[in-house]
Amino acid sequence: MTKVEAIEQLIKENGGCVSLKTIYDKIEKFYHDAKKSNEWEAGLRGVLYRELKNPNSRFKKIGTSLYALSDYKEESKPEQKETVRMHSYIEGICVELGNEKKFATYTADPSGKFRDNVFLKDVVSMQNLPNFTYNDILQYVKRIDVLWFNNSKYAFPQYAFEVVDSINTLNGALNRCFQLQNFRTQFFIVAPENHKQKFLQTLDLQIYENCKDRFTFINYDKIIETYDILVGGSKKIDWLKQ
Fold first, then answer.
1. pLDDT (tens digit per residue) in 74-113
2. Beta bridge partners of 119
3. Distance (Å, rounded) from C-alpha 54 to C-alpha 132?
4. Which of 72, 93, 102, 133 stands the most exposed, by the fewest C-beta atoms within 10 Å?
5. DSSP track, 81-125
6. How far is C-alpha 170 from the chain's CA centre?
7. Are strands 157-163 and 17-19 parallel, antiparallel or unpaired?
8. Under DSSP, is residue 201 helix (H, G, I), strand (E, B) or coil?
């Protein structure tokens, strides 16, 4: 069996769609020597890249790190009224964006469904939150929807994302982010556009006076558009503070 055939079998086993992380984790089941090379991950990406350029490719790319069989019918994007489904979908986009920018990614919702047969645990690079600060703070921080950590020996959160599908959850989201005020973390509230005014009003409260400039509001349409552009090959995230 070739590596292309092994990846094809792995994708079929996963229901027609798979994340790159899952390919890394499970490829040996179908190709026993897949990890013998020191550069085996790059080798697998090369196999995928070359196959995607083939006019008769067996695969297609449907996310920044998601691959499907060429005849696979993708699941429709959730509608905004599907709050639970939309919540985990937006979380998945935040994770994928972080991975694309070479951050280590964490989510408080690993069992959430991202899309098709891919769950958030299949795309995050960190399964557990690093013990980078006091335990009392970690108990709040571990509930933040998505975190991007710097990829270094001592990992610290660089970006925090809270998905606010209901205005009633805004204060909780802001307060969880607020626990990271002593770190150089940028905070993003991702929500429907009609929540923006409440977000701005809440940030005017005195408690947020010293860190309000570290919060950014992004509506669902903007972050989905950013993701779609990256899937198309762009590398720029224009709203990301770097």
1. 889 999 889 999 999 999 999 999 999 999 999 999 999 9
2. 113
3. 45
4. 102
5. T-HHHHHHHHHHHHHHHHHHTT-EEEES-TTSEEETTEEGGGT-S
6. 21
7. unpaired
8. helix
